[in-house]
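Ticket #4471: structure output looks truncated?

Reporter: J.K.
Steps to reproduce: submitted the chain below (330 residues) through the standard prediction queue, then opened the result file.
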Amino acid sequence: MSDYSTVKKLKLIGKDLAVPFRSILLLQKKTTRSSRNGNPFINIQVGDSSGSFNANAFENTPAYEVLHTANEGCILRICGKTEYYPKENGQFSPKLDAVEVITKEEAETEGAFENLVETPPESETELWAHLEDAIAAIEHPQLQETVQRVMDELGDHFRVCPAAVNMHHAYRNGLLEHTVHMVRAARALLPLYLEVDADLAIAGILLHDIGKLEEYEGDFAARVSRVGILQGHVVLGFRVVRKAALQSKLNADLTERLEHIILSHQGEKEWGAAAMAATPEAVFVSMVDNLDAKMGMVQRVLRNTATTETFSDYLAGLQTRVLITPPDKS
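Returned output as attached by the reporter:
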């Protein structure tokens, strides 16, 4: 219904105004924290297809009581008032007056459900066609079979899975978009680095994040699963790739090199890598992964930030705010 505001519409409201609003949004993330005086409060990240924002609910308020038992991934009807904190040049952080958990059916009845789930600019069908072309272009028979086995088994899930909970490509079809963009970047760069075996690099790109299919769960908003917390997508992906390589009779050397790409693609051990990249292909995949992850953050924030703004909100993954205005080439 027209009286429900999208995130993008809310962020277009002047920063000096405190405007009442109603929105239907996904609860993407919930964290319980303590204030300086020791009182608990809940910080939430909520959003729709046009963006997201964070807000706080303090103890002994109606919003806190609802959010205390609400699960990440649920749908919320929110009544509040627009605010920025800090007031000058701060982030959008509205006051929550009332929060209600509603069902998918209620959101559909209100005409808000179709705008809830963020997706990439390219359609799932287009992206999947590009991924299938990338598999077909792998010339080594057993490498191609290894990748194809994984996608035959897990492709339906791969098509819709996000690439992250919060950092980059953190939306439906995000993993598919991230992987296809990495393939495109790799194809442009491979002619510059003849030491990198193209088949092995492309196979590694296609499978590098396959463990995220087990690491994340949730229908509308991703959250880390039990096995994701206990093992992580690098280990989970290593298992999937090893099984497929053995079934495809991939030779021992290529199996080890492909597994090494999975184990090292995070780049740094403090970022989750099980090993540092030590082959030309592993270094290449790790760098392309980092490039597309960061540029994915830039692309998303440029899509979702109002053109009236000069800078985006702070992005933890980039440790800065992004300049929204295009270059002046006059």
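Triage note (M.O.): checked the attachment and the full token line is present. The chain has a mean pLDDT of 91.
Status: closed, working as intended.
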